[in-house]
Design goal:
Calcium-transporting ATPase, cytoplasmic transduction domain A; alpha+beta; 47% helix; 16% strand; 4 domains; 7-stranded antiparallel β-sheet
Length: 725
């Protein structure tokens, strides 16, 4: 009966046959399930468990093999872009240009090593955290048939040792070790927040009362791996383990979602393919034209290779990896482990954030918010009755009971006279959905105080207390009370009704029949309070153009109320300041291609103008003036590149309407100043440079001014095309 479970719509969603088999696990008689799994109520023998462990594997979530981590650098290197760089390095080596081959190869190698080391460190940190958690389960194991005493015994085993057919014992505080069918249960409440995100526990029981209309998670007879027993006790039959559990299938889905689908890697691959296509056309074309015109084929090959190298941004993989690694280091300072570097860019490119409500917008804890009489006004008497009920019950206190008891301390409210003592209790069950205690005061008076679900308590009430006066609870008043409760629920509150009545002193036995002819006192309302940090975080997301969508299994009314409490309006288009941080975008190869097609002609035109000035005006385009020509070209090239870096940041004028971050500005100025200093410094001869003519500086300023004027409308057209795409 081993099941592979997953949620519909997930990559491992159940097939109809698998879903039907799991439905059988929830609804078949337990005897039939034991027969299907060849198991017994006293548990498996050690021999049977070992045989099933070999068949089904360990009850553990799948983990990445240790040897697989060392392949990370190779995986990052194997991309079209890096393959293009590797091809250029090989061609440079063939052309006897060892320096170019070494530089290009070093860029590829350093990029892969940096990425691999950073991701390996993150994985090591996650592995160390996982080793800190050791979970066990209480399992029944029976002795072999020929043993002297063939009786069942409960032993503690690691969760990884469980197999289908095992019988486990569950108690308050236990983590459910596998997907199981309940055999017996007693007042069992299970928190399924790990699967649903909701903090309120759900009731589970061993008796099938009809198929659930909302899916497997709400089947009352099933408990799932990774959930937590809040109260009660149960025995359960293991149906599925490991990756075949619902939790395991979700873990595998999360682990395989990124496989080959990283947006950044996809865009880098597309850019690499684009450059590879351009190089495959330009290199042979330039080689043939130059060879046919000059007849020097070796020289033509070197020239074509230099053109291909010039077209390729060799530093791009290194720059991208270094930027992502810097982001990972910054996040580690905030106790965030980044397992894959590409996730940094995905986080920065986010424009829609889907979040859970419980524990994300809220604190994932229940607090008492109001105590109201039947008319909707604040009532200390209602709180005192609720406090007496929660204080004097003998069972395991629920989150609601703890909220009531702690409410008096938090609000400095007066509690009732502690001289009331408990005489008896009518415990909670899932049919009545209420709990009553019978109390006796110091003067001998007795009262029954009932607390429970609104409709169940209202059904026991024949009177209602309004302004301290008891009056018949007629249909008109019932409708008014239900309307008030509906308003509270629309405000995101969970409402519990409080009722009481006097008990005769002569009565000594109490039961369900005594929960009749009650007087409705009022209501206690609870909420999961919003996090203090939720509203500022949502405001920051909205300011950066990120639309927030709340995913919740709760009612739409409750979710809307919680969103309103933290200032989150209904999902809509959020406005912000055509920039990349407030309005992030994914890498777009189309934009890269448009930039090349629109800016390359402009750059080439001004290159020709600069060649003309150097050749015909300053007359330094000769062999003997080679150092002067190279220096002039270096200074102009660096200036235009710094100008382009600033122009790319916004369609408006740089430095006036928008400024780059200070590290970018300082780095750009440093590169520019060093490049302009080289022709005049002591290292000029080493690099084959010399101070250019004084007249070149005036011409250079004219060329840069013209380049700026022409590039601005080009940049605006690029920005408009990016917005349209």
């Amino acid at each position: 009966m081993q099941q592979r479970m997953g949620m519909r719509g997930s990559p491992r969603a159940l097939s109809p046959a698998e879903s039907e088999r799991l439905a059988h696990g929830a609804r078949w008689p337990i005897e039939r399930l034991f027969a299907e799994l060849h198991a017994q109520g006293q548990g498996l023998t050690e021999r049977e468990a070992k045989a099933r462990a070999r068949r089904y594997g360990s009850n553990a979530l799948p983990r990445e093999p240790a040897w697989y981590r060392w392949l990370r650098p190779l995986r990052s290197i194997a991309s079209p872009f890096n393959l293009l760089l590797a091809l250029l390095a090989v061609l440079a080596w063939i052309a006897d240009d060892a320096r170019a081959a070494a530089v290009i190869g070093a860029m590829v190698l350093l990029s892969g090593v940096l990425r691999g080391v950073q991701e390996l460190r993150a994985q090591t940190a996650l592995t160390r955290l996982a080793r800190l958690v050791h979970s066990t389960a209480t399992v029944l194991r029976r002795a072999p048939p020929r043993a002297a005493e063939a009786r069942a015994g409960a032993i503690e085993l690691p969760m990884e040792a469980l197999v289908p057919g095992d019988v486990v014992l569950l108690a308050a505080g236990d983590i459910v070790p596998a997907d199981c069918r309940l055999i017996e249960s007693r007042q069992l409440f299970v928190a399924q927040a790990s699967l649903t995100g909701e903090s309120m526990p759900v009731e589970k029981n061993a008796f099938f009362s009809g198929p659930s209309a909302t899916g497997l998670l709400t089947e009352p007879t099933l408990v799932f791996q990774g959930t937590t027993v809040v109260s009660g006790a149960a025995s359960a039959l293991v149906l599925a383990t490991g990756r075949s559990t619902l939790f395991g299938s979700l873990a595998m889905s999360a682990g395989t979602q990124h496989s080959g689908s990283d947006p950044l890697q996809q865009e880098m691959n597309r850019i690499g393919l684009l450059l590879l296509g351009i190089a495959s056309v330009m290199l042979p074309l330039v080689f043939l034209i130059n060879g046919l015109l000059r007849g020097d084929w070796p020289e033509a090959f070197l020239f074509a290779l230099s053109v291909a190298v010039g077209l390729t941004p060799e530093m791009l993989p290194m720059v991208v990896t270094a930027a992502l690694a810097k982001g990972a280091v910054d996040l580690s300072g905030q106790k965030v482990v980044v397992r894959r570097l590409d996730a940094i860019q995905a986080l920065g490119a986010m424009d829609v954030l889907c979040i859970d409500k419980t524990g994300t917008l809220t604190e994932d804890r229940i607090v008492q918010d109001r105590h109201l009489d039947a008319a909707g006004g604040e009532s200390d008497q209602v709180f005192q009755l609720a406090w007496l009920n929660s204080r004097n019950q003998t069972g395991l206190r629920s989150a609601l009971d703890r909220a009531v008891l702690s409410h008096a301390d938090a609000r400095a409210l007066a509690v009732p006279d502690l001289n009331w003592r408990a005489l008896d209790e009518i415990p909670f069950d899932f049919e009545r959905r209420r709990l009553s205690v019978v109390l006796e005061g110091q003067g001998g008076e007795r009262r029954l105080v009932c607390k429970g679900a609104v409709e169940e308590v209202l059904g026991c009430c024949t009177m209602v207390r309004l302004a301290g006066v008891e009056r018949p609870f007629d249909e008109a008043e019932r409708a008014a009370v239900r309307a008030r409760v509906s308003v509270l629920e629309q405000d995101g509150l969970r409402v519990v009704a409080i009722a009481d009545r006097a008990i005769e002193r002569s009565q000594v036995r109490f039961g369900r029949d005594d929960e009749a002819n009650l007087t409705l006192a009022g209501f206690v309302a609870f909420l999961d309070p919003p996090r203090d940090t939720a509203a500022p975080a949502l405001d920051a997301l909205a300011a950066h153009g990120v639309r927030t969508i709340v995913l919740t299994g709760d009612s739409q009314t409750v979710a809307a109320s919680v969103c309103a409490r933290v200032g989150l309006q209904s999902p809509s288009i959020l406005t912000g300041v055509p920039e990349l941080v407030p309005a992030p975008r994914r890498w777009d190869p189309g934009e890269f291609r448009r930039f090349m097609l629109m800016s390359a002609p402009v750059s080439s035109f001004f290159d020709l103008l600069a060649f003309g000035v150097l050749a015909w005006v300053l007359q330094v385009a000769t062999t003997e003036h080679q150092a002067l020509f190279q220096s002039a070209w270096l200074m102009l090239g660096l200036a235009t590149q710094v100008l382009v870096v600033q122009l790319l940041r916004a369609p408006e004028l740089p430095l006036r309407h928008q400024r780059a971050a200070w590290p970018v500005t300082l780095a750009s100025l440093a590169v520019l100043l060093v490049g302009w200093w080289l022709p005049f410094g002591p290292l000029a001869a080493i690099f084959g440079l010399a101070p250019p003519p004084d007249a070149w500086f005036a011409w250079m300023l004219l060329l840069l001014g013209g380049y700026l004027l022409v590039m601005m409308p080009v940049r605006r057209r690029l920005a408009a095309a990016a917005r349209q795409s």
